[in-house]
Amino acid sequence: MDASRISIWRLLVKTTILFIVLNLLLSTFNFLPVFGRLTLYNGPLPGRERLPYGDDPERSYNLNLYSLEAMFASHKLEATPKAADEFRVFVIGDSSVWGFLLENKNTLTDALNAAGLHSANGRRVIFYNLGHPTISLTKDLMILDYAMQYDPDLILWPVTLEAFPLSKQTSSPLVQNNPDKIASLIANYQLPIVINEDFASSSFFDRTLIGQRRNLADIIRLQLYGFMWAATEIDVYIPDDIELRAVDLEASEDFAGLQPPELHAEDLAFDALAVGIQLAGEVPVLIINEPTFVSDGANSNMRYNSFYPRWAYDSYRFLMQEMSEQNGWNYVDLWQAASNSEFTNTPIHLTPQGTLELANSIVAVLDETFNLKP
Amino acid sequence: MTLTQIFIFAALGLLAGRSYQAGSRLRVSRGWLLFVTSALAVFWLQPASLIRNLPFALPVASLGLAAVVWALTLPKETRPSRQDWWAAGLLAGLILLVSLTRYIEPMSDLLAVRAPGIEFAAIFVAVLLLLCGLIYWLGRGRHFVLHAAVLLIIATLVVLKSEPLAQVASGALRSLTGQDPTLASPLDFGWLGFSYIAFRLIHVLRDRLAGRLPAVSLRDFVTYIVFFPALISGPIDRLERFAPQLRGKFVLVGDQFLASGRRLMTGLFMKFVLADALAFFALNASNAHQVESSGWMWLLLVAYALRIFSDFAGYTHIAIGLGMLFGVVLPENFDRPYLKANITAFWNSWHMTLTQWVRSYYFNPVTRWLREHKLPMLAVIIFGQLTTMGLIGLWHGITWNFVTWGLWHGAGLFIHNQWTSFTKSQPIQMNPRLAQPLGILATFTFVTIGWVWFALPQPSDAAHVFAVLFGMN
Fold first, then answer.
1. Closest Cα to residue B361, out of B145, B142, B199?
2. Closest Cα partner for A279 from A163, A174, A167, A186?
3. Other CB atoms within 10 Å distance of the CB of residue A262
4. Is A275 in contact with A189 (CB distance < 8 Å)?
5. Is the model's pLDDT at A11 over the cut of 90?
6. pTM to 2 decimals?
7. Subunit contact B293:A231, Cβ cutoff 8 A
8. B258 part of contact set with chain A, CB < 8 Å
9. d(Cα B287, Cα A227) in Å, to the nearest integer?
10. What's the complex ipTM?
11. Is residue B255 less than 8 Å (CB to CB) from chain A?
């Protein structure tokens, strides 16, 4: 065609129509999960040791994103076929499992793997870090639901009271941005959660290329940060000066809007724990009450730390024990398994030494409960 | 330029270009359109600064410099035309208009910060008019004034490119504006496009001194100096090539639109996709000390080499594409430089308008002068190559690393020059099928190693990277 005869306006109109058609098609077929599985990890780039998370992407070579498909596609678990002699253990949970302010070599799963455990029939016990640094049992549940396809033999689920209030169940951005997955959990297990305006919209427009542009960009950025992750093994930014958890506490007995003297089972999301165990099916689940800092500063007679008033935490520990016994759950309370000096910026984040102390306690429980021995 | 800014400029070009078609009821004068758009773009593109009113003052200074140099270089026999008076009036009006955006909320985005008051802008305009008048009546065409102007522009460039001097200048400006001078930073002083403005101004001043500058109107002269597509990253056009294009008739038809669209799309892809993607793992001052493996360090360095090319060449595509929409064909700046088989060919295809400028206004005069003073040819070549490339290094910033980068390339050019002379006299020639790819590989490696100094601010960083690259860490 003679280029000089091309109509500029006709060209622009055709381009616009093609773009609209492409958007309609992508919206109809919900392309994001498929796109999320396309990854450079576990191929040209090594798989990550833990799920992607990073508040400071430029320094941590890691970022927050909401596509579970992309998150798991970047994890080494995706490309690790289960060997005949492997006893596969998933560790799910919050930032203390993920290893906030800890290098990969110092996380809980690394410490557990270093113990070199074997099952009764001689299989090597291998722990995988599936923690994610937001606190919500429903978020853990969603990750567990997705992770079950990777065939675990045991699930460790460290929890803390902060993950239990009903109001916190949907506050994790990962939960809010996966309304379809939460809706599926609600439908299958009758979870008492309402998909409200806090959740990301999944309207027709939101599923288009335009609506999903942020998610798409995050998935691409995750691939690009993979190069520096592979070159440096850095996936977390640890500042030189960390402001330590508070010792002197506020004179408040409030906990998530709940008041003393005690918590009630219906105040907390025990349903989510029950669903998790149901979802795991034949695979045993060990619920662990993770260590928490005990302050001796101002108002420590009223509170254990900045997270928990004493009445609430004591009540929670009592309820956990009671619920576990009633339901036959594997539960262990390790709230004092780490020395008080080994907490970092929050009452639940541990130093490498504190993590090692917790791992040693867990190893002892695994030996006793599941016959997993060094 | 952001994507939004590029889109708005392209849309403006498209609308204006179509307005010249036969039958169109709206006919905008292209010369005036480009003059007004370029003048306003200087304000719009100028980044924010912590120094009060600087994002307004620097664009005014760019426009003022252009007007003053125009007055200075106007041939003695030429008097300002009625169009020149209109242009001067319009320029003054635009400056005042920009300051009025302070009071018009939807227009306030034209500047990165709040515009100063009208009285401040009026003082600027008055000073500029006075300066232009003084230059026109007293300094026009006088050689010492032309030389002084060149020196003043070079001195300003030196202050901007040298961190300690920029810091001092920032402190002085902060004192002047009643701000705390102890908080001064070289980053305060980001004069958008001054590196390119300075080279265009020196080009016209030198050509005026040599008596080969064509007479152009104030409108076309200012447009040439601050032409918005080429303001930030070039290319550095020549006045005698640029100005006539503003006068000819232009209608945006299909083939020009396609060619322009192709250049814009290529540029957008190279700059906003390739370069931005490579930036995630290209060598920089932060990651230079985190990588301890030689293989990964090479990957980071090659990523930097590709990134800087994609970014710069991509921007040139965008500039040329935008220019074409307005009927201005800017000169090419890159010609597949990484596929050249020797370092001389590389420099003939990398940032071509800069190298041509430096060749015209430094290398040729200096080597001619040295030859006239009967220096040995070898000394002339080595001095010419090293100082020319050193100068190009300094143009990027006055630091040891940029100087070293320049000298590295100067040495490469000298060695290649000697090698070519040597091989011409040898009967045995290498098989061209082998020589070409080997030459490309060797040149790319040489250039890529040079980027270590360019990418990092400190010589100690560069030393560390070299140690890792060659397994000596």
1. B199
2. A186
3. 14
4. yes
5. no
6. 0.91
7. yes
8. yes
9. 11
10. 0.88
11. yes
